[in-house]
Specification:
Helix content: over 70%
Number of strands: 2
Order of helices and strands: HEHHEH
Distance between the termini: 38 Å
Largest sheet: 2 strands, antiparallel
Number of helices: 4
Mean pLDDT: 84
Shape: extended
Radius of gyration: 22 Å
Oligomer: single chain
Low-confidence stretches: none
Strand order of the largest sheet: 1-2
Structural class: mainly alpha
């Protein structure tokens, strides 16, 4: 590998050697698999937290049912987003105040999570849920708490990067 490249060089894909291309492809594959693993672990952890918190409301045939729920969560989330999408587009076309739009967008995000969990509970084989709106509400609140925690951590890191925090 040539170390003579400067950071401001315009290196193109065509100018890379075969080994550099293979290394870049290997690195991107690892990055993508790492991201998929992290997202899967976060969703599974949330699924297990909701299941544990609503222990008497959720009955599963076995641990395989939880993995079915994990596998079906993404398609169910897409279905829920499809139902919420017209409201999001209508919101973007309105002339509401930016703060109101942001709050409404957050409420629509919570509604999407709520619907996704309802659909997942309905379509997952071997899963029986009594009062399915309670685990769905719990999952939506868990997503809100996670979002708030991530936003707080982002603010701290941006302040630290600007030199305001030690």
């Amino acid at each position: 590998m040539d170390d003579s490249h400067q950071p401001d060089d315009a290196t193109t894909w065509a100018s890379l050697s075969r080994g550099e291309k293979a290394l870049a492809a290997f690195g991107m594959t690892g990055l993508i698999l790492g991201i998929i693993t992290a997202v899967t672990a976060a969703v599974l952890l949330g699924l297990l937290a909701v299941t544990a918190a609503s222990l008497h409301l959720v009955e599963a045939d076995g641990i395989g049912t939880l993995f079915w729920g994990l596998a079906l969560f993404l398609p169910c989330n897409a279905l829920a987003a499809l139902f919420i999408y017209p409201m999001r587009m209508g919101l973007r076309l309105t002339s509401l105040a930016p703060r109101t739009k942001k709050a409404t967008e957050a409420a629509l995000s919570v509604a999407t999570t709520f619907l996704a969990v309802l659909f997942t509970a309905y379509f997952t084989p071997g899963l029986r849920v009594h009062h399915p709106w309670l685990p769905a509400l719990l999952a939506a609140l868990l997503a809100v708490l996670a979002s708030l925690g991530i936003r707080k951590m982002e603010r701290r890191t941006s302040k630290r990067a600007r030199g305001r925090l030690p």
